[in-house]
Amino acid sequence: MSVLTNLLSMLCCYGFLLDNLFRSVPCPNVSVIDWGVTRWEVVLDERTCTCRVWQVKGIPCLHAAAFIAFTRDINWEKFVDSYFTIEKFECALKVAHMPTKDQWVHIDAEEKIYPPTIKRLPRRPRKNRIRANDEQRKKYKCRRCGGYGHQQK
């Protein structure tokens, strides 16, 4: 079973960056990771973490990757779900065959289908245009003090 290589490299990077954040519990495959006031418990045998990312995605979360890196276990493949193996990826590609244009079903329609007509919105049109987020706004100068950010009439 071989896991996709970019996934393995990502997990290794996360694990070795964070492997100093945890403290061990008497069980060899259980750990508690502390980050500030937050705490996560990782159980390697059950593939669980209290953040629940590992159970949902099937990929070890940051906390689990830190603990796996600390145990110096080189075989990351046994902690990743079988869904991420190359064999499953190739299987998915075989099933998802898209037909070419000559295999499309041809339907003879009696009348031509046109796009929907565009209706004018039932409100007064905008007076000013909508400005882009990166567009600079005009700065007004105060007539009384000469400062920017406010204006006195």
UniProtKB/TrEMBL annotation:
Keyword Oxidoreductase: no
Domain (SWIM-type) ranges: 40-72
UniProt keywords, alphabetically: Metal-binding, Signal, Zinc, Zinc-finger
Molecular function GO labels: zinc ion binding
Database matches in Pfam families: SWIM
Keyword Phosphoprotein attached: no
First and last residue of the signal peptide: 1-15
Alphabetical list of PANTHER family matching this protein: POLYPROTEIN, PUTATIVE-RELATED (PTHR31973)
The protein's name: Putative zinc finger, SWIM-type
Organism this protein belongs to: Helianthus annuus
